[in-house]
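dumping these here so i dont lose them again. two proteins, back to back, each one seq then structure tokens. dont judge the mess
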Amino acid sequence: MAMGARKQPLYDQLVDILSEKIEHEFRPGDLIPSERELSERYGLSRTTVRLALQELERLGLVVRQHGRGTFVADRSAQTTNLMQAYSFTEQMRGMGRDPLTTILEFSEVEADKNLVEHMNVRLGERLFKIKRLRSADAMPMMVERTYLPARKFLTLRRPMLEQKPLYDIIEQDFHEKINVAEEEFFASIARPADAHMLDISEGAPVLDLVRTTYNVHNEIVEYTLSVARADQFKYKVMHQRNV
């Protein structure tokens, strides 16, 4: 296709060309030609090429990794069924991937107005904050910020989190039987700190998830805010009609 033959902006034309190649020629994980190579091949400025790659990333067709290049995204990733109990570790193992959880922070904080509203706790009440990076096959996948009411988990310590899954700790060590978990998710863009941890570009598409977990007494035992790479996650909700 001759670039500039249509009234469509040049970077849009390049987006169309690369989208077609991604659909019919490239495979998930393939390295896209560099900005310089694309610039020389199609006679475009580096700025125009960069805009096209940013658009492809926004569409979830490619993944840009700092210092490595731009890769075709795997859009065939298995879905997560939000009607079932969610476990990152179990999901990744079910996909044949090697999961890893890295604890970035374990601290005690006081509930602010936002946490009071979402956790039904008192202003200033002590909470445990756990920040974790979830990876699969050494690829960063998700950043999680979890809050637990300290009064229910008084003896919780960081080494416990390094030895077993959080939900096992909640149920087995502290005998808080989980009854239901509500989860909301919506499209967003990566903020600088999260983009750095997830090894994606600032402003890249992500999924923001909010999970609230209740025990059998309808008390909130967990409140988690997650940021997941949009190119690695798809979510599915099934609705069953009672007849």
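---- next one ----
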Amino acid sequence: MRLNHKTIIIIGASSGIGRQVALQLSKQDNNLVILARRENLLTFLSEDIINNGSRCLPIAADALCSQQMEGAVELAIDTFGIIDAALINVGDGPAFNMASTTANEVLHNMAINYNTLVYSLLPLIAAMKKQNYGLIAHTNSLAGFLGLPRQGPYSAAKAAGRMLMDTCRIELAQWNIKFLSLYPGFVATTRVSDDGIPAPFEISEYSAARHIIHAMEKEKQDYLFPLALRWLIRLARVLPKPIVATITKKMMS
């Protein structure tokens, strides 16, 4: 799928990777539906998208509210008639220590990273079943493959998202709906600039967006990046757990 002359919805577009994906796609003559909570940032982004030659529908909505997500997808369909592709790019990964955190903190972080996927996914699936095709991409994380130190709830939520997308890929194939799980490593966004967590092989937002657009256009199923971490994760999945734990602890300390 070449991502030009398409209608694309980006959930979590106001900043970071989502914003950069929207800006890059806006140079390819698309209809862009941009969604986030911060309406003022969406307004600024919408202006940039229009100046780059694409059409834009900004929608201020909370991905933790199923009704708002359903309404956003309905509005996108009413405006442009179809959704060719979607990027679900919502999440947060503050540092946690399982020796001192609370149950509410863990569950809230998991909701931000997993419930937002569910609330976004279901109305998109319903819309794409009617049109009998579409591509849904989800920004997961390489942390979804490993239980990283100080990232336990985040890793757990991302692992759950990975499994859910794998199931969707099988069950929705009859409607020609394709699913892409994106697994970035460390990306230099403003959100994580002062979280105190080491970030080996960190890449820029711009580079991350290029990877995401490439994977969407190639209609990958799973896409891990950058290359160095891709091979480290694949190696870690076959090594004994004590060895993986030792390596991970050294990388993240």
